[in-house]
Amino acid sequence: MRSGRETVLRQIPIFSQTLAQKLLISIVSSIVSVSALASAPDTSAWYRQATGYHIWIKSFADSNDEDQVGDIQGIIDRFDYLNDGDPDSGGDLGIDLILLSPFYLSERTSDDPMDNIHGYDVLDYYTVNPRFGDEKTLKSLLELAHQRGVKVLFDFVPGYTSIKHPWFIDSAAGGQKRNWYVWQDQPSNDWQAAWGGGQWHDVWKPHGDRYFYTYFQSAEIADLNLHNPYVRAEMEKVLKYWLDFGFDGARVDGAPYLIEDGPGLQADRAGTFKLLQDYRSIADSYSPAKVLLAETWRPREQVGNYFGDGSNQIHLGLDFNWAWAVTEVVDNIAPDAVADLKRYQRQNFPSGYQMATFLSNHDSYLPRPLTRYEGNANKAFIAAALQILGQGTPMIFYGNELGLKGKPKPDAELRALFNWQDVERQTAKPHSLLSGYRDLLQIRHQYQAITHGSELPVVTRQYGVSSFMRLYQGTGVVILINASSSEQQATLDLMPFFKSAESESLSEDWAHLSLLLGKVKIPAVIDSVTASKVEVARIPPNSVTVLYLGAEPQKLIDGYYPNVVAPTTLPNIQAPALTSLFLRGSMNDWGASLPMSRGDDGLWTIVTQLSHGRYEYKFEVSGQSSWGLNWGDNENDQRGEVDGSNIRLQLAESGCYQFWFDEVTRRYGFQLAEGCD
Fold first, then answer.
1. Distance (Å, whole) CA 570 – CA 174
2. What is the pLDDT of residues 628-666, one digit of tens each?
3. Which residues lie below 8 Å from residue 423, measured CB to CB, with a gap of 6+?
4. Which of 10, 188, 553, 630 sits in a 20 to 30 Å window from 66, CA-based?
5. What would the pLDDT profile of 585-608 be if each residue is shown by its tens digit?
């Protein structure tokens, strides 16, 4: 029997966090290729030029506007927002790649819009969760997407299932699938979390007289034994099923932790890379080939291994390290963080690698941008510019373009409902965050230097302005970032544009310099003599400026965004009435011995006798060993949060205490009662 994986709180990548003096303006000039003569990347793979959008199905769009639970039909109904089929309309985002969250039949199928139906607790890989729709509707979505030139990826979950999956039930009973999961009679205390830290019982959960392994650290989700050839064959069957169905590729969930070889040997295993090679062989067997995107949530020293030799494992890796580095650039904590990361990747990753960049996602990694930047929409806009115009395949997490807010604990807050009225509000405001995203995306779609070109540094360090240039077939796009609160100026060295092989198609030794986005003073024409000292004056504070170099002058797309606004409101959630509720905590060994009673006003109460001391508890709906919808509290503000942290309680005296929970407002509390009757 194989041993297992590690288990600990995920490590956040650490970059330089102190500077002798903070620069007023971020410097990321070496965000790009070291050589001014760098050749253009391979442009034959569509995913390198794609603009992605990550949809959380439950939260994106509800087709009936009744239960406030998103569904597949809702995506179809709102598809024009993503891509309306008219590249010249300007009314859509121009998305050409969609990643769907898990849609499998899973244990959580609640009608409650506040329920965290994450879909990773799989019950049946071959059935669509009826809360989201059915195969017919899913097929209609794929057909619509393909008609408009949009590729669609599904979330492939090969590592674990719900403990209510028939496979697990059979395995726990010692049936034919007894070796389909990872079991031990008594795990050693050497085990940790898969990503380091923690304790053995974080990843080993009791079930009967044995323990099952769960890298997910959940008593409801068990890891599949991917050492078992029958399990590997079954998961390959799942992958083929949905690729045959019409998907253009898959996101491999939890890729670093698919195989565990013992305590401390729970990530980045050789067996995992062999699995990825097998999945790549399947993807490459299609014509055209399918694409593998992987969750590569690991230190940068490990990420390159997931690309194999650059052509035999994954195509795309989600760049968790980039997501963190961007925050340090925007906040001027480590101005070179992105540049250093990109340089490391170029020097250490195999040829052919491609990273998918994101500012936040559905996991407890980072807050959404507007939350991370404390409501500063200008900073959120700068971060978006680095993502959309920089190197990599941008994967926009739904709602970030509106400034949807969300904290990472609990991660359910990162998956809040998308309010479609906000789209209307921000569309009407020319300097809204959504309008800014549309401008950036228009530049990405209109100028192939962004999607097809190589990147070159632009020397601006003497003025501290962040700058990089993308080159393709005699054209160039220059991006300037001023993340300071004051107006700046810069002298740009654009001579690499004339020296680069990318500019060989120029018939003259001069080029037009046009302003695409922003409000600065620049010369209209530069030549190979003056290009080394191009003066850019009056760069506004907290701004993004985009310039164009080429044989023909270009029109301004938009001016300076002085104060980016992001008006957003969460929909008024109408939660359904609960049918049962239990007080579960350390006072009753987290069991179901304290059922609560519901009043006509939706207030649930229970009175119980407690001794003085410390307690932890939550409110939960099922009373079963496998927990259902539950509420804790992360902010300690007496408002229940779905899947929130344990509520802590310190009692100074013993006595009878009444606990209450309001199912409408999710407020809760306790008080000393007169008696226990």
1. 48
2. 788 888 777 888 877 777 899 999 999 999 999 998 888
3. 81, 402, 434
4. 630
5. 999 999 999 999 999 888 999 999
Q: Please, what sign has the CA dihedral across residues 201, 202, 206, 211?
A: negative
* CA dihedral sign of residues 64, 70, 73, 78: positive
Rounded to an integer, what distance in angstroms lies between the CA atom of residue 578 and that of residue 604?
9
* Residue 427 CA neighbour count, 13 Å, CB half: 10
Contact of 600 with 663, CB cutoff 8 Å? no
Q: Which two tokens stand for residue 384?
A: 């978006």
Provide the 8-state DSSP code for 95: -
DSSP per residue, 463-483:
TT-EEEEEEETTEEEEEEEE-
In the chain, where are the structural domains located?
A: 22-41+315-405+422-572, 46-156, 582-672
Q: Which helix (H) or strand (E) holds 151?
A: strand 151-156
Q: For the chain, how big is the Rg over CA atoms in Å?
A: 27
Name the nearest CA neighbour of 438 among 88, 93, 159. 93
Report the Cα–Cα distance between both ends of the chain, in Å, rounded.
Answer: 53
| H or E element, residue 232 | helix 229-245
| Cβ within 8 Å of residue 474, ≥6 positions away | 502, 503, 504, 505, 506, 550, 551
Q: Which helix (H) or strand (E) holds 370?
A: helix 369-372
For residue 347, the tally of other CB atoms under 10 A from its CB is: 9
Q: Phi and psi for 125 in degrees, rounded to 5? A: -70, -15
With H, G, I as helix, E, B as strand and everything else as coil, classify residue 392.
coil
SS3 188: coil
In 551-602, at which residue ranges do the beta strands (DSSP E only) sit? 582-585, 597-598
24: Cβ contacts below 8 Å, ≥ 6 apart:
332, 464, 484, 485, 486, 488
Is residue 199 within 8 A of residue 189, CB to CB? The reply is yes
Q: Which CATH superfamily is domain 582-672 in?
A: Immunoglobulins (2.60.40.10)
The neighbour count for residue 278, using CB atoms within 10 Å, is 16
Residue 155 is inside which H or E element, if any?
Answer: strand 151-156
**CA angle, corner 68, sides to 577 and 80, nearest 5?**
175
Helix, strand, coil share (%) of the chain residues, nearest 5 = 25, 25, 50
Lowest-confidence pick of 57-66, 510-519, 567-576: 567-576
| Choice among 48-52, 85-89, 381-385 with the minimum mean pLDDT | 85-89
DSSP 181: B
Spatial separation of the C-alpha atoms in residues 610 and 656, rounded to whole Å: 6
Q: State the CB neighbour count (10 A cutoff) for residue 122.
A: 23
- The torsion angles phi and psi of 160, rounded to 5 degrees, stand at -165, 165
CA distances from 41 to 368, 393, 502 (A): 31, 13, 11
- Reading the block at residue 518, the tokens are 């922003």
DSSP code of 419? -
CA nearest to 362, candidates 656, 624, 59:
59
Q: Are strands 613-620 and 393-397 parallel, antiparallel or unpaired?
A: unpaired
DSSP state of 501: G
The model's pTM: 0.85
Amino acid 463: pLDDT: 58
As a CATH number, domain 46-156 is 3.20.20.80
| Beta-sheet pairing, 647-651 with 641-642 | unpaired
CA 159 to the chain's CA centroid? 19
- Overall average pLDDT of the 464-478 stretch: 85
For residue 532, give the 3-state DSSP assignment. helix
